[in-house]
Amino acid sequence: MSWTFECEAPLGESLKIRRHRLENGLCLVSLVDRSAPIVAYQSWFAIGSRHEEEGRTGMCHFFEHLMFNEMKSLPVGEFDRQIESVGGDTNAATWVDWTYYRASIPKTALDLVISLEATRMTELVLSPSIVEAEREVVVNERLQCIHDDIDGFAGQELFRHAFDTHGYRWPTIGWMQDIKALRIPDMEQFYRDYYAPNNLTLVVVGDFEESELLASLEKKYGPLASSHVTPQESKAEAQQHAERRYTYNKPVNSARLLYGFKAPPQGHPDWPVLSFTCQLLCGSASAPLHRELVVSRELASSISCEVMPFRDASLIELSATSTREHTLDELAEAIDAELGALANNPIPQSEVDKVANQVETEFWGSLTTVDGKAESLGHYQCVHGDFRALFTMAENLAAVTAEDVRRVLARYFTAATRTVIRIEPNA
Questions:
Q1: Are residues 354 and 262 both part of a single domain?
Q2: What is the pTM of this model?
Q3: What is the CA radius of gyration of the chain?
Q4: How far apart are CA 316 and CA 303, in angstroms?
Q5: CA dihedral 67, 68, 74, 79 (to 10 degrees)
Q6: Per-residue pLDDT for the chain (427 aa), expressed as one digit of tens each?
Q7: Count of C-beta atoms within a 10 Å radius of residue 91
Q8: In whole angstroms, what separates CA 164 from the centre of its chain?
Q9: Is-contact 300 293, C-beta < 8 A?
Q10: Domain residue limits at 157
Q11: Cα separation, 368 vs 373, whole angstroms
């Protein structure tokens, strides 16, 4: 088994990103960066919560916990202990479109990490005692992050009501009843199907020799068998034509308002314009919505806006917390008036120039570390199918104009395509 070189792209004046693929389907995105004697090693699996099914949600996140447990050749805790013994650290994250595991290590520990990561793709132990112990951890995590957290609960309800059929409608952690019902045979099948080399992108960034990396990876990952199962595609959402509104009474001091406007996927030409627009609306103390609603009129204590970086149809999430002296109706009326005024009047070029500088600084600032580079490359390779979409995104963000902002405000920030979640203080 050998590597096939697929493509390369420059990063700055001296760095070069390269993509290779093994015959068993494993994808490698590598970047030699000798700015420090460290390596970011990340395993990105193309399986996220959107690929799950009703009644079996939460499997992807459950596995994020299980993958740090016992293996046939490693007792419980040994994986982390070996990484920590060489001065490294490791963690993981589950999202709607992917699950990834990361290790940040000194360059001398690269072979150790390769061996450990390849081992846990085939040797995971799913005994009843381990599964039940982790189930309790996940149940408590859901209680803490959603049941006992107002913002977590509001976010869950926003996506549950904004999406009708798509897998984005349930939380990444899953529904509580599903978490409690997941069975070991289903977990074993999931492990065989999706923790396979043809569903994996390795992203390695840092101080290493590419030829030695390729040889080490081929030795450890080459013998792994491909899976014949690919993640299911989610059902397409029907177009929304009317506002959806839901109110909940909760033990909070201040009321919350969440708007979820329907938006295109991250790969759509309008997505970078929407990301730019969210920054323009709320991204600084002088941004229009913050300046008007928080500073001038004191209707809100905070306000934020972001568009989700999803592979499929996305959501613009605008959230605000009202001050005690004002109602949600007052706050909602003021937000709608500001959005309407911005959509129907020219955007000052000075505002666009300011945001362009902010966006450029944040975008390239996220790529200053080896971990930041690896995370961005992994996301774009998994979500877009090509890490080079990262650079297309940079070009599109830099090209946003005042008219682009006004256009997307008028097109996407409309009542007919939004879901509204209101959290009111109870008695």
A1: yes
A2: 0.95
A3: 23
A4: 13
A5: 130
A6: 689 999 999 998 899 999 999 999 999 999 999 999 999 999 999 999 999 999 999 999 999 999 999 999 999 999 999 999 999 999 999 999 999 999 999 999 999 999 999 999 999 999 999 999 999 999 999 999 999 999 999 999 999 999 999 999 999 999 999 999 999 999 999 999 999 999 999 999 999 999 999 999 999 999 999 999 877 777 788 899 999 999 999 999 999 999 999 999 999 999 999 999 999 999 999 999 999 999 999 999 999 999 999 999 999 999 999 999 999 999 999 999 999 999 999 999 999 999 999 999 999 999 999 999 999 999 999 999 999 999 999 999 999 999 999 999 999 999 999 999 999 998 6
A7: 12
A8: 21
A9: yes
A10: 3-221
A11: 7
| Position 388 in a domain | yes
Q: Would you tell me the crossing angle of helices 349-365 and 402-412 to the nearest 10 degrees? A: 90
The answer to whether the beta carbons of residues 297 and 334 sit under 8 Å apart is yes
Chain mean position to CA 13: 29
Residues facing 307 on adjacent strands: 316
Q: How many domains does the chain have?
A: 2
- What are the counts of helices (DSSP H) followed by strands (DSSP E) for the chain? 15, 12
Residue 239 lies in a domain: no
Query: Which amino acid appears at position 87 of this protein?
Result: G
Output the domain CATH number for residue 199.
Answer: 3.30.830.10
